[in-house]
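Sample intake sheet
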Amino acid sequence: MGDLKGVEAYPLHWPDGWKRTRNPERSRFKTGFGDARQYLFDELSRMGARGIVLSTNVALRNDGMPRANTAPAGGDHGVAVYFERRGKRMVFACDKFDRVYDNMYSIAKTVDALRGIERWGASDMMERAFSGFKQLAAENAGESWWSLLGVEAGASLEEIEAGYRRELKKAHPDTPGGSHEAMQRLNLARDQARAVAR
């Protein structure tokens, strides 16, 4: 386990400003706790993550990892993983699903997809996606991409695009109440959402 100051592996250290899912759903993933945890750490390692802290409400083993097949405290199945990459602190979090290991698996799939962006020849796009996360947070004072797009945090690509088109009508500079700044925030939100959409 890593050692990012101020981040706890247990209890869950949910990132500030990240919206929580009200009604987690059952996933279609075919995985188990140990496999999901290993997949997550493998993908983070391949991405060059250092100092990884996996934060959940699952009690920890002696080695600091969450215990498999243990119910999370308070029934909160959320997962946040903090790490450093190229000298920058980063976090992914997911609570869309009603099992801790499905949320771990979802984060691992997201990291795998982002790594694919680099592998498939668009090497600077992953850095842009990450800088979009930071820029969006800075410019929107903690407002999440999903709230800007009017969708849920785990929205599909189709839902993201529909949300973008809906919000575009309000944000466009040619629309009453719209502005270039609102348009920029909306475009950043869409870029960030596309980077993590499954």
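Comment: The radius of gyration is 17 Å. The helical segments are 33-47, 100-119, 123-139, 145-149, 157-171, 180-196.
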